[in-house]
Amino acid sequence: MRRSGRFGLNQQDSFCVYGAPSVELATVPAGAVQVSPLIPGAAVLEDIAPASLSAMVVAAPPGTVERRYVLAQALRALKPGAPLTVMAPKEKGGARLAKELQAFGCAVEDIGRRHQRICHSVRPEAPTGLDAAIAAGAPRLVEALGQWSQPGVFSWDRPDPGTLLLISALPALSGRGADLGCGVGLLAAPVLANPQVAHLDLIDIDRRAIEAARRNIDDPRVAFHWSDARSAPALEGLDFVVMNPPFHDGGAEDKTLGQAFVRRSHQILRKGGTVWLVANRHLPYEGVLTPLFAKVALKAEAGGFKVYEAQT
Length: 312
Prior knowledge:
The protein is an alpha/beta fold. It contains 8 helices and 17 strands. The longest helix has 14 residues, at about 65-75.
């Protein structure tokens, strides 16, 4: 999905919400515009016209650079005097929220509830430091990756060692395939190096990753999808799937995420198709792979990671 042009707001939908704030901690009116990069189809906060929003609620991300970027973009988009409510778990940036907002020139009421810090503020007439925070969190060409990336994307500033192990173990693939949870395209590039690959679907739930992948992978054989790989897009009859499936949701480990990726790969492969995946050594993927696939083989193991090939 490509980004649309500048996002227009009218009077009734000039309330925005970033992320998924708890309904017990913030009031979000029906029809509020969702702007999270992790919710496929949501509007793009960066595309909202400056000083156009009447109110905003933000469930702040845990990373410092990413969080300051989101706060700066929110203040840029809000009208002067418009209310801003920001929340985050205490141990995931909440303890720093008030100081970060104050650094932008905001007066802040900071309260604690349900292990979260909740900051109520209004957009000052002339916020300070927005440009610097936006520049720090913006997309950029990362030398360590040799690719475009952005703070907040998985392993945004360095190659993930699990993905590197998978790349080292991959054979020359061919036919039609998919990369589930493709990130910025680190795994896709070596897959596409084989001219026998006819088509590759790159799928990620993070819009920023897909936008970076578009810049990194210039190949007519590729289709890009800002989607939840566990359910979309509709694919079938693929020859291969490659993936480094996620195992964290909102910062907490969730083994069921990767297991769902395994089940999805089985659904979209043809008979005799193969999935290549890498996982942290402690994750119990064998229990999902073995009942679904006719053949399962451990192909590599190093640095706390393991690579599997499974054939339908």
